[in-house]
Backbone:
């Protein structure tokens, strides 16, 4: 029987490098690829040393592929990335929301476009260095997405959009490993990236200054407006809604004698609503744009643990379907900073039930 | 799994010919002298360089003192364009070029624009040809340089160089041509064609990488490129790449000797490929002029598929091809050449360049024709656009 072919997305970092090595050991026919998502002319991002898809990343990934003795290619996703990730990111901020571009990238670029490209070339699977597990459950007849063994590294939050078709053709070999094991493995294999630091911020905003990025990218100037309290009383001036996110306390540039937090962003009136800490808590939310993994669809109330942002702790909640295909999430105890644009992901133990985008 | 290895990317680079390698080898170890030294092994190196210079001059109808060795074709282009622009800045600051030049020319012109020069990028027709009358009309009192490539690296179109040269001469304007793709493949005579500067690169005609040459017509006012010692008449300081220069000399000598015979062979492979691909694969277009093209170049666009996937699948089958010019990261941007000949963005992404060499055979084409049609078919099967076409619903 011919070997199964797998295309591994390689960023030049430790995780995807080790993922490729593991698949090779398991007997797959492995092909390495790096997605090129920036035009050559954007030198600032291209020449960064730590960006996941920069020119340096390409060099690192190529060296790893050489070391492993696998073919390696760079694939061009510049137009798609701009459309589905960058424009989405800036658009959401301009609407007063706080998007998660990594989820959009996974959804539209990695697990849709890259997978389609691989399949069209006769490749059986794509693989990534995500910390998550994909298993097929015979009794349910479904592919399940499960948390990685190391809770602190688990990346299932950013993967809830995967469909059954995508999961069937995706391999995530790192789900059973700890980060320490992965680093040790990289060292053992003599991979040139064993000691590279983990990447942190959003790959296309190297200096973490979202406001500046949005202004430069859209050519729009951040328009100043009013800070108001929840009753609409003006408290001061803000520098433009794109500079704020729900729950934010630092950097408001306003002194009111008590700690104040962003409660809501009112893009329509260009206002930022501030309140005291207790006003930042909500006991429910509505999610839209849903995808379910462990179930085909949500038919009644279901008790889950819900996670409202990448860094948030899971909270007990009950989810129930609404008529328009949306889902209502009611928390047992109110949650801090429920932020429109972020995703809410539902878990049942270590199994991802599904998720959607907070409205 | 790979049944054959077929190299069809000779426009990217060529293997060093056996005789070329043999000519070079002594100069790495036994004859290692510095050409600037006065003793015998130094003089021997110097003689080897001057012999190579004569061979280059002979191949293009120049005098040997008009030939300057460089580190690459790109360096020759940079030197020619910047050298003429800066040396004549008092006279004028306008440069005429075309929109389908190699990046070595385009990016150099863009650099000069950022330094206050004015550049006209002439359009080309649907086959990629520059109209000499447009060159004439673009000339202004402050024009100091016309730089138009001899033959295009992607679509192989051969420009009307002699006609452009004639116009430049009439107007007393310096004329440079990037002949990196043409040298060794087509007849060039700098006198007959009124060329004032010409760039070439050894590895495109079975010589080594890392060495090129610039022809500079006697009496041309040009700045020096590298400052230092007195090498290359103090125009391009650096201890000479003796072995490389010897290799370039040998390679151009061989290419010039066999030019007609090689061209005949390559054209046969080229024409057969064009004919069979067009016959066997629907929705395909040949890019570039059918006749006024390099003997070894074909360039196709296949509608409804991405060139990138096509190249990867060909590579998996052992066929080395390309989509146009290689770039830093090795990924594909839409080709500026294909956009300039009027192809829409999505088709400019989906091109395939095959460039034949003297070692290719009809068996190579047999293998290509066995492998290529099913790959195109498979990729189209997966394309939602093609799905619509098959349903006879083309307007989506």
Residues:
């Amino acid at each position: 029987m011919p070997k199964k072919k797998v295309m591994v997305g390689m960023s030049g970092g430790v995780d995807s490098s080790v993922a490729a090595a593991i698949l090779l050991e398991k007997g797959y026919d492995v092909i390495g690829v790096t997605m090129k998502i920036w035009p050559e002319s954007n030198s600032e991002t291209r020449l960064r040393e730590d960006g996941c898809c920069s020119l340096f990343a390409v060099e690192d990934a190529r060296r790893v592929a050489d070391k492993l003795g696998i073919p390696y290619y760079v694939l061009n996703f510049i137009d798609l990335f701009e459309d589905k990730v960058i424009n989405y990111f800036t658009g959401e901020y301009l609407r007063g929301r706080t998007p998660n571009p990594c989820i959009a990238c996974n959804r539209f670029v990695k697990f849709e476009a890259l997978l389609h490209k691989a399949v069209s070339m006769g490749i059986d699977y794509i693989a990534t260095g995500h910390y998550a597990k994909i298993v097929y459950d015979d009794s349910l007849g479904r592919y399940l997405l499960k948390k990685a063994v190391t809770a602190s590294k688990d990346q299932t939050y950013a993967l809830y959009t995967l469909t059954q078709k995508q999961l069937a053709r995706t391999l995530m070999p790192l789900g059973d490993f700890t980060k320490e094991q992965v680093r040790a493995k990289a060292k053992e294999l003599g991979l040139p990236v064993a000691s590279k630091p983990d990447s942190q911020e959003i790959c296309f905003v190297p200096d973490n200054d979202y406001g500046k990025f949005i202004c430069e990218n859209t050519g729009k100037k951040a328009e100043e407006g009013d800070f108001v309290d929840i009753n609409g009383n003006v408290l001061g001036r803000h520098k433009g809604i794109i500079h704020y996110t729900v729950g934010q306390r630092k950097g408001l540039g306003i002194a009111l004698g008590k700690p104040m937090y962003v409660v809501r962003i009112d893009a329509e009136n260009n206002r930022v609503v501030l309140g005291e800490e207790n006003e930042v808590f909500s006991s429910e939310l509505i999610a839209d744009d849903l995808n379910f993994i462990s179930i085909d669809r949500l038919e009644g109330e279901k008790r889950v643990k819900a996670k409202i942002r990448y860094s948030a702790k899971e909270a007990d909640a009950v989810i129930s379907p609404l008529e328009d295909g949306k889902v209502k999430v009611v928390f047992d105890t109110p949650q801090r900073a429920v932020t429109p644009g972020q995703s809410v992901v539902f878990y049942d133990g270590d199994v991802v039930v599904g998720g959607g985008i907070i409205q | 799994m790979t049944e054959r290895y077929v190299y069809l990317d000779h426009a990217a680079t060529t293997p060093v010919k056996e005789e070329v390698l043999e000519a070079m080898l002594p100069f790495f170890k036994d004859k290692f002298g510095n050409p600037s030294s006065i003793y015998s092994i130094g003089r021997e190196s110097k003689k080897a360089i001057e012999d190579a210079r004569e061979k280059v001059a002979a191949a293009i109808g120049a005098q040997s003192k008009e030939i300057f060795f460089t580190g690459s074709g790109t360096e020759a282009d940079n030197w020619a364009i910047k050298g003429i622009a800066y040396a004549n800045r008092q006279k004028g600051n306008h440069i005429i070029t075309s929109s389908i030049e190699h990046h070595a020319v385009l990016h150099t012109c863009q650099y000069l624009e950022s330094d206050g020069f004015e550049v006209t990028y002439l359009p080309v027709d649907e086959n990629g040809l520059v109209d000499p009358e447009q060159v004439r009309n673009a000339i202004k009192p402050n024009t100091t340089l016309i730089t138009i490539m001899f033959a295009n690296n992607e679509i192989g179109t051969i420009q009307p160089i002699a006609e452009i040269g004639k116009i430049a001469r009439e107007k007393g304007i310096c004329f440079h041509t990037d002949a990196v793709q043409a040298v060794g493949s087509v007849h060039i005579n700098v006198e007959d064609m009124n060329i004032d500067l010409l760039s070439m690169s050894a590895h495109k005609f079975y010589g080594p990488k890392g060495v090129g040459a610039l022809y500079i017509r006697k009496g041309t006012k040009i700045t020096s490129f590298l400052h230092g010692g007195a090498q290359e008449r103090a125009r391009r300081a650096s201890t000479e790449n003796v072995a490389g220069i010897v290799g370039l000399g040998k390679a151009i000598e061989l290419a010039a000797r066999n030019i007609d015979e090689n061209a005949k062979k390559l054209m046969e492979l080229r024409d057969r490929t064009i004919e069979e691909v067009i016959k066997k694969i629907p929705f395909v277009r040949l890019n570039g002029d059918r006749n006024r093209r390099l003997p070894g170049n074909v360039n196709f666009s296949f509608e409804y598929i991405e060139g990138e996937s096509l190249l990867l699948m060909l590579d998996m089958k052992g066929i080395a091809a390309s989509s146009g010019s290689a770039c830093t990261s090795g990924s594909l941007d839409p080709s500026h050449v294909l956009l300039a000949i009027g192809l829409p963005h999505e088709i400019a992404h989906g091109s395939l360049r095959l460039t034949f060499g003297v070692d290719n055979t009809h068996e190579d084409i047999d293998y290509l024709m066995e492998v290529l049609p099913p790959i195109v078919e498979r990729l189209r099967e997966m394309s939602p656009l093609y799905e619509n076409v098959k349903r006879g619903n083309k307007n989506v």
User: Anything to note?
Assistant: The mean pLDDT of chain B is 94.
